[in-house]
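testing teh design pipeline on a random one, pls ignore if ur not involved
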């Protein structure tokens, strides 16, 4: 059936009007239920300001179909951030604290402390450089070290408040120099630039160190700790500790690293003694015993009448060669029983034969004196009280085979390495406990 165009046109107009009325009703009169997905966010106008019904809604009030998901995501992200912050805080709290300590080496034993005990590096490597410095970590402490003639008062970059000063108190001229350094450090303490002070002291060979007493904190001074060479009666392992004399770094004696050759090499001599022979001393007795026993040719000996403060390159080389080629090193007492030769012999695996006698002075006496520190550490030396015992010792040496000698050298080198490690740990622990126990 064919529908007239007029009726079709009227029908379309009627449908359009009907649809328009229906849409108007839904917009203005129906209570719409908006789904979660199609909900529109409505923000209230600021107080006292009426919203213009004819204005276009701002962008912030626009339709946001993912609003709930964003809220949940941001909430979860914030929780993760807070958890990560707490994690970093726990790591920082549990991380071992590190402390800084500066060491000023104003005596040659400072090099023994730094290079032989702490095993720290030094730059430049030139031993006669005017200024040398280095850094290392030991335990919880970061040490920095400065030494050389150019290290003078007021010109050391002090960037920490804990200080160790290495001084020489062996004779009056050295005491005067050391006193000036202590007065400088005292001024730093009074200005609150420095809070903690320790002194490593090459003490007097008679153990007469009264000059430094007033500077100790226990006597009203500012020095918290004193590490002193020789068997001082002050040693109490609380604020005064004994320190080893070590090798003669002032004569450029080097750090000798243990190696297989020191253990396995064939040594052509039974013993050695190169040194000063003082009149009416036990050293004269030693030389006489060697001559009278006919064993002088079995040992490397070189005696001089006057002490020389410095070695030449040739004399140092001859001395080191003697140590490396001898099974034993003879160590007669000088002004004090403890001498550099003991430690130098240990460096080469040559067993020290030590004259175990007390020398005049104020040093502590007791069952473990002299050489209290070394004996307590179980030093594998040969101790004698009279050099007349030496011929029998050398005859026994002749009966030892190479394997026995090698084992003894190995034990000595291992002991000396362990001793230095123990001194390093002890020094570090005492510094930590005294300087930083309340931090």
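output:
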């Amino acid at each position: 059936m064919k529908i007239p165009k007029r009726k079709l046109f009227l029908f379309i107009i009627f449908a359009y009007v009907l649809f328009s009325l229906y849409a108007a009703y839904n917009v203005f009169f129906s209570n719409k239920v908006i789904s979660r997905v199609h909900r529109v966010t409505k923000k209230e106008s600021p107080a006292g300001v009426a919203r213009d019904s004819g204005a276009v809604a701002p962008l912030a009030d626009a339709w946001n179909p993912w609003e709930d998901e964003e809220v949940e995501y941001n909430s979860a992200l914030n929780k993760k951030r807070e958890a990560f912050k707490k994690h970093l805080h726990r790591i920082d709290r549990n991380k071992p604290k590190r402390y800084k300590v500066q060491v000023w080496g104003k005596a040659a034993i400072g090099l023994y402390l730094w290079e032989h005990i702490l095993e720290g590096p030094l730059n430049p490597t030139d031993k006669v450089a005017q200024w040398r410095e280095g850094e290392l970590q030991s335990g919880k402490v970061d040490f920095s070290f400065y030494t050389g003639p150019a290290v003078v008062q007021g010109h050391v970059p002090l960037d920490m408040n804990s200080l160790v000063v290495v001084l020489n108190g062996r004779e009056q001229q050295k005491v005067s120099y050391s006193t000036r350094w202590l007065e400088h450090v005292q001024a730093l303490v009074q200005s609150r630039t420095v809070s903690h002070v320790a002194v490593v002291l090459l003490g007097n060979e008679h153990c007469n160190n009264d000059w430094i007493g007033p500077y100790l904190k226990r006597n009203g001074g500012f020095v918290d700790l004193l590490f002193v060479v020789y068997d001082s009666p002050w040693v109490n392992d609380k604020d005064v500790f004994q320190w080893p004399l070590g090798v003669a770094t002032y004569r450029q004696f080097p750090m000798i690293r243990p190696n297989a050759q020191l253990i396995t090499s064939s040594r052509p001599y039974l013993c050695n003694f190169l040194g000063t022979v003082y009149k009416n001393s036990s050293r004269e007795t030693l030389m006489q015993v060697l001559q009278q026993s006919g064993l002088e040719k079995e040992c490397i000996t070189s005696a001089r009448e006057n002490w020389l403060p410095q070695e030449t390159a040739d004399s140092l080389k001859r001395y080191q060669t003697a140590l490396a080629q001898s099974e034993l090193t003879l160590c007669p007492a000088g002004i004090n029983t403890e001498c550099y030769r003991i430690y130098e012999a240990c460096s080469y695996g040559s067993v020290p034969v030590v004259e175990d006698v007390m020398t005049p002075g104020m040093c502590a006496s007791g069952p473990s004196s002299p050489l209290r520190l070394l004996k307590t550490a179980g030093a594998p030396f040969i101790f004698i009280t009279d050099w007349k015992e030496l011929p029998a010792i050398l005859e026994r040496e002749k009966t030892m085979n190479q394997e026995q000698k090698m084992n003894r050298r190995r034990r000595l080198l291992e002991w000396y390495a362990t001793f230095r490690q123990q001194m390093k740990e002890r020094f570090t622990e005492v510094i930590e406990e005294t300087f930083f126990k309340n931090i």
